[in-house]
Amino acid sequence: MIKAITGTKDILSSDIPHWKYLEKNVERIFSNYNYKEIRTPIFEETALFARGIGEETDIVGKEMYTFKDRSDTSLTLKPEMTAAVVRAYIEHSLGVQQPLVKLFYLSPMFRQERPQAGRFRQFHQFGAEAIGSKSPLLDAEMIQMSYEILKSLGLKNLTVKINSLGTPETRENYKKLLKNFLEDKKNTLSEDSRRRFETNILRIFDSKVESDQKIIKDAPKLVDHLDEESKADFEVVKDQLAKSNIPFEIEPKLVRGLDYYTKLTFEIDSGSVGAQTALCGGGRYDLLIETLGGKPTPATGFAAGIERILLACENEMSFTLHESAIDVYLIRIDNELDSVVNELAGKLRKENLSVDFDYLQRSVKAQMREANKLNAKYVLFIGGDEYKQGLMNLKNMSTGIEETIPLTKIEELKSRIKNL
Ligand code: HAM
Question: With contact defined as beta carbons under 8 Å apart, do 143 and 241 qualify?
């Protein structure tokens, strides 16, 4: 038997209402902040992500779905959206029409990670990118929007973590400090971290190896060595969060798994999803646009994992949805009335009513059971003596009230169904 690929999952129709509910909240809140939707292709040239996210990151080094197409071009299924949005921003000169471009997205992403609860190889993100301003108010806005979306789903067990990585110069100075600190401990680091010591020392903070964590715990902190501008911007973000009543923690180790960040980084964790705690993450990336060939343009953004959020919602039972019901279930009393019922269903569907009937030649009793299962608001009986007199019988399933209506009077039927 052929099964779905490891790390992918079907979203069955019983799951869809939860997805739709989340999507509705996401779209409403992004629209309140005036973000417009963008959709980009599922795959891009590999170089976009390699250059944008950074060669030394886990995503580029170990997790991308990269393949050659028939014309020998190296393509990659998008592991994240920021690089793709920036590519589109540059390609369509979006910044020429508008100095500040505020975009949001909702899309599948692909990373070949080890699957576990809340971690998939095809997963879905929603997120936002604001390109064109260095205002820290926009950094705060990213946190506010993501927090508001998570709260709108009823989630409680949330921790907002923030950090600042400073400007590139600050970071270069800090890297020297970190190098000095780690120099005599280098040989006790894991192999990956020893390599990163040479290539991209900040990535050592990403290490999951316990002995690395122990060493790095006492390292000097980047937030204590910020330049004046980064420090002032960080203060603005903290102030805005306090004003919006969003509790937060400063997490000096939050370097994030992508290389493009400058100044603010943040994550929102949930205590309700097991090991994969990050529901969303983001930050400022003032250098990415020029790295990818555009004019120097400051930008900030975030992305959130939908599967992980829905898992947190399920574990916290944070919202309940009322089962959607169909408007009318048609029951034919005589089997030979199939085509009459089919025609009537067609007329009612044209009136924008949701309608179904039995295609399996089942007994009246079985049809009634089906109507109950589908939570039908009305049941319409066709057949028997009433049918011979040109009538049909409408039953309101919540009140039990029944009435007869002429078969030809669809308008009358519709108004009863809509008004009763
Ligand atoms: P990220 O931290 O790599 O950031 O991913 C954002 C969120 O996507 C994570 O917090 C997590 O909820 C979800 N996620 C990531 N990998 C998986 C996975 N394998 N399975 C399920 N969910 C996952 C970014 O992608 C950046 N582009 C965010 C950003 C936007 N920064 C600035 N702008």
Answer: yes
